[in-house]
Amino acid sequence: MKSFLYSKRRLASLAVVLVVCSALLGSRIQQAFSLDNEYQQLVKFKEVFTLVSQYYVDKVDLGKLNEAAIVGLLKELDPHSVYMPPTNVKQSDEDFRGNFEGIGVSFALNHDSILVEQVIPGGPSEKVGLLAGDKIVLIDGRATKGFTEDSVKKNLRGPKGTRVTVSVVRSGSPDLLHFEITRDVIPLSSVTSHFMVDDKTAYIALTHFIQTSHDEMVKALEDLKAQGMKSLILDLRGNPGGYLEQAVEIADEFIGGTKTIVYTKGRVSSFDEVDFSHPGQAYEKLPLVVLVSNGSASASEIFSGAMQDLDRAPIVGVTTFGKGLVQRQFPLGDDGSAIRLTISRYYTPSGRSIQRPYDGAKYVKGIVNPDGDDEDNFSHSIDVNQADSSRPKFKTAGGRMIFGGGGITPDFIVKADTLTKSGIEVFASAVVYDYTKDYVSSNGASMHKQYTADSYLKNFTVSDETINSLIAKAKDKIAKAEEKAGKTVDKRTKLDDKELETDRNFLKDWIRAEIGYQLFGYDVRAKILLKSDKQFQKAYTLVGEAQKMAEFFK
Predict the structure, then answer these.
(1) In this structure, what DSSP letter does residue 286 have?
(2) Which residues are known catalytic residues?
């Protein structure tokens, strides 16, 4: 009997060993087949490349051909896996690093000159006296006529400590003004506006997530707290994302305890990560409302998704973009090029993937329309409940129903105001934009003497005569363009006066905001436009709701 049991155990052990060996052998065989297949594909590509280089009828640029092949390969994967030439890598690094080296102005091409739209406070240009509205006509003695945007950047940017001389035309000055400017590190801000809306409610606009975003947010929060902030409206509309870790760090400021903020999963387990909050942060109980739009993507959706899943803050606006793929940048060769490759998907605390459907490099219309037009059937209350929705359903920490499968659907859906068709035509004609540029160019110096930011907000107005004149110019410009294009009278664009009357106040606000921005910066622009912003106004009414959520948040 003992011998029989012993034999059975030996057989069982042998079976286990055989199973393990078979599994290992199968894995290695599968891996060998996989490697063999990869090798075959590389050999095939090499053969094609060699044949083209040796026998194609015309001489070809092999480097350009190779880059096209890489681009084509990545297009088969997803919309965010891309090839980046050396110049793009450098620009991308600057954008996400949060600074560049230059003279510290924002500009627009204006006929045969470069119009200074804004002088960055504390930057090299402000220190030497350059003003918004100045027209740069010479750079180091070279005329700027014919410059493109890239050539302006190439000539004005440069290593810290180097010098450039710009010659400007300034309204009221009969002669050219010459400024020698020493280039320096210019910070790129992601917090473009922060101010008190009233004596208790604060507003912050965060436009993207770069290397400095968390530090900028903390600095802005501390400044607003010193001014009496008791609640906050955080505007992530149009924020396309950026560094995931920055979104996590900012979210951590508002989330108490040890809770999942986001996690990622990919085919390679070493890329899987989970990010948790940490207890003891300063703003864990601050009432918070978050604004989002269909341009809010990636890191913006990580932040707003965590706030929604954890019942930390009401979300207001329209469904976000739906980018739930995580990329990592891999350098290629020695020429400075790289590929940005999708390595995993990210998930909100409830387990939602908010990635929109895609086919290769193209997004597929369906579950979520980027326009937000599929949202008409959703409830306009915090208890969004659409029983017949085909989208996957999840629950928040407090048990509310939320949706996955494409973007973050807000708790309160409020569509943004839009211009009428005639209003869009007026803006498309560029007469309004040209007017604001020319106005600042002609009056910038005198307005700096006449106004402060506060007095501008209180006293500067745009007359009906100005709007009437711009509409007339737009009509004339559109008619001439269509006549030149050979359109008959009955097929030309007709601007509807009733529609334009509807848009009149927006036109006034936009002109005031744009001139104010060029003279005094983003805060003035935001303060003007938020007054007629339906989404912001809804968020402002929800501060009480945010207070309740903050009180019950655990």
Answers:
(1) S
(2) 298, 309, 323
